[in-house]
Amino acid sequence: MNHVVTKPTFKFALILATFSALGPFTVDMYLSSLPKITDFFGTNASMVQASLTASLLGLGLGPIVMGPLSDVHGRRNPLLITMILYVLASVGCAFAPNIEVFIALRFIQGFVASAGLVISRAIVRDTYSGVEMTKFVSLLTMISNIAPLISPVAGSTVTAYTSWIGVFIFLGILGIFLLVVTKWGVQETLPVEQRVSSNFLEILRNYKALLKDRNFMGFALVNGIMFAGVFAYVAGTPFIYQNIYGVSPMMFSILFALNGGAIMLGSQIVKLLAGRMTAQRIFKVGLSLGFLSTGTVMTVVFSQGSLIALVSSLFLFAVAIGIIGPVTFSLAMESQGHIAGSASAVLGIMPFLLGAFASPIVGIAGEYSAIPFGTLLFATSLASIFAYFVLVKRSERAVYPETTHS
After folding, report:
1. Which of 236, 352, 361, 378 has the fewest CB atoms lying closer than 10 Å?
2. What residue intervals traverse the membrane (predicted)?
3. Are the CB atoms for 230 and 321 separated by under 8 Å?
4. 331 closest CA partner among 263, 405, 280
5. Contact by Cβ (8 Å): 60, 184
6. Are 60 and 352 in contact (CB under 8 A)?
7. Which residues contact 374 (CB under 8 A, 6 or more apart)?
8. Closest CA to 358 of 243, 259, 241, 231
């Protein structure tokens, strides 16, 4: 490991959080413009929604390429190139001649935007270790979680003064800003002697090694499974709150923002506890809170409980997510310094893969039933506990057969 920084800095976290925020801004900023884009291209809603699917697909597949690239060529140069491509793709979206080109450019936009998340995480692993990495990741998470809250509002603000084209011009300007930040504000954190071979088979072997690492995959699966629950929450609550409990769109926005704040609270709890408790113990606190809160959600749903009971239990679930996210990253990445980019890619893609399966299940009983939602949320908690005990605890016992307890 190189360049160990002893004290996390807010400025450094803000820079990396801005790169992490590129994904949410890419996906969310244009959502309010979908009807206008439909009219502009003279197409149907499903074709325009395909552009959203394309950007999500790009964000999901991008890490597989971006992670190894950063292990081979360092962190800074891939970040520079992807930011240039992001600017070009954003401007291309603004002036796309037809919906087909627009969809293709949205995929490219999402694909290169994924570099911001993957490489920023790899930079964290290059720079910090142990308790300091846990503290820094919790700070990074807290800042990053603001992006999904403000990006839809930012998009609506832009379209209040311009057309939908203004959203993509704004994203292009954001890309230029990040390009400038990369050029003059980001130092290379992976020395040449620590980089991996560009041999394709070597890259595949690195991924194979990660998949065979029980400890790493255990934490990666826990994180991915729990965040699949977040995808279920995002897909299910608009219908549950508005159709079943009759809340207004404005109240729904407030409740949605409340849980965004809960995730930030959870990450702040991690920052406060790091150094006072081991990362493993903090992780178990988050996992236990996730189990209790999702169990409560399922109980409320099956008993058709009050809105306050549902909101409260979902708030605690969001706090648990805020705790689990930073800690699982630190625990998973601790021993992956030599292939931090590839490891970050696996951690980044896991929630998308599992979330893709979770989201459609929420609506299988229709828009007026919350039963699948409550059941699925509790199931993700059980599955994450199962993954932890089968993979992480067993690997601990294999290494420390006489000393591993708890």
Report:
1. 361
2. 12-33, 45-66, 78-97, 103-124, 136-155, 161-181, 216-241, 247-270, 282-302, 308-333, 345-365, 371-391
3. yes
4. 280
5. no
6. yes
7. 297, 298, 299, 300, 301, 302
8. 231
Residue 250 lies in a domain: yes
Residue-number span of the structural domain to which 156 is assigned: 10-195
Residue 23 pLDDT level (bands cut at 50, 70, 90): confident
Q: What whole-number distance in Å separates Cα of residue 35 and Cα of residue 48? A: 8
Domain count, the chain: 2
Instruction: Please write the tens of the pLDDT for every residue from 56-105.
Output: 888 888 888 898 888 888 899 999 999 999 999 999 999 999 999 999 99
**Is the Cβ–Cβ distance between 336 and 321 less than 8 Å?**
no
- Count other C-beta atoms under 10 Å from residue 42's C-beta: 8
Write b or e for each residue in 211-245: b if 16 or more Cβ atoms lie within 10 A of its Cβ, otherwise e. eebbbbbbbbbbbbbbbbbbbbbbbbbebbbeebb
In angstroms, the CA 63 to CA 322 distance is 22
Residue 78 · residue 70 · CB < 8 Å: yes
- The string of pLDDT tens digits covering residues 229-241 is 887 887 678 778 8
Q: Contact 332/395 with Cβ under 8 angstroms?
A: no
71 and 163 housed in the same domain: yes
> Angle at CA 165, nearest 5°, toward 163 and 171?
125
Closest by Cα among 251, 265, 368, 361 to 311:
251
Q: Are residues 85 and 151 in the same domain?
A: yes
Q: At what angle do helices 130-144 and 10-20 cross, to 10 degrees?
A: 60
Paired residues of 277 in beta bridges: 274
Q: Are residues 270 and 366 in the same domain?
A: yes
At 277 the three-state DSSP class reads strand
Give the count of beta carbons closer than 10 Å to the beta carbon of residue 95.
12
